Amino acid sequence: MAATRYGHISVRELTLPAPAKLNRLLHITGRREDGYHELQTLFQFLDHGDTLHFKRRDDGVVSLTSALAGVADDDNLIMRAARLLQSDTGCRLGADIHLDKRLPLGGGLGGGSSDAATTLVALNRLWNLELGLEHLAALGLQLGADVPVFVHGHAAWAEGIGERLTRVELDTPWFLVLHPGIEVSTPQVFGAPQLTRNTPPISMARALQEGPGTWRNDCEATVRRLYPAVDEALAWLSAFAPPLLTGTGACLFCNFEDEADAREILAQTQDGWHAFVARGCNVSPLHQALGLL
């Protein structure tokens, strides 16, 4: 029987994006008893990221043919997402998965969380499970606080540990994203004594009304102290446009109205830095590909 197709996408084989995200604002408003931090943040996607290839298997085996250096399969969020979906549904199908990795580890772009979300959404389609996005997002939360926003696939104001989401429409400029060639440890940043943890909460309406010119990242000062390479890159970028850290870093970004302006600065980045230009998206490229939103 011929495979049913969704546009150019077959339900037996899928190739789908796992887009990057930016935290265009990140406030830390408190610390919980369980050690996690209360956050307020604005998530937005980029039209740049990893790509995942899936091929359905009928024997229940899940294989990842592109292991990440230093990351065991049992710790890889792609494998954990696939196995969690099997366990939750009792599904006896499997998949061969191949990852084309473009996003840096420890970069603050949500690469691992996005890979996990794409895996949940793709295998839900590949295995004909017909689970809703709310169900998949609840599974994703077991894998990481950033996974649900990638599952839901829309720019969002987030609170709690980042899992309480409200859709927003943000401006969609061109971004220059710069990675200074290091990996930042999120536990180290959140464990730092000097980290700001008492920013007064604000409403989503106020944050949007005040606009991008007022947005900041409460992690930035701490990351700059702990990682001189980030401090150096931020100082360099500030000569061209106001830069911000995304997540806990190490990636930094500036926004521009014109793509040409962003690419002009891209051409001047130093050796040892990795940078790219991408457009901001309010609807995830994953959901655009599958027609989900």
Walk me through this protein's architecture:
By secondary structure, this protein is of the alpha+beta class. 30% of the residues lie in helices and 29% in strands. It has 10 helices and 12 strands. The strands form 2 sheets. Strands 3, 4, 5, 6, 7, 8, 9, 10, 11 and 12 form a 10-stranded mixed β-sheet that branches. A two-stranded antiparallel sheet has the order 1-2. Strand 7 (156-160) and strand 8 (164-167) form a beta hairpin. Helix 2 crosses helix 3. It is globular, with a radius of gyration of 19 Å.
Structural class call reads alpha+beta
Beta-strand share of residues: 25-35%
* Number of separate helices: 10
Poorly predicted residue ranges: 1-10
Q: Output the helix-strand order.
A: EEEEEHEHHHEEEHHHHEEHEH
Characterize the overall form: globular
- What would the CATH topology of the largest domain be? Ribosomal Protein S5, domain 2
Quaternary class = single chain
What radius of gyration results from the CA coordinates?
19 Å
The portion of residues assigned to helices is 25-40%
Gap from first CA to last CA: 29 Å
Number of domains: 2
What is the level-2 CATH architecture name of the largest domain?
2-Layer Sandwich
Number of strands: 12
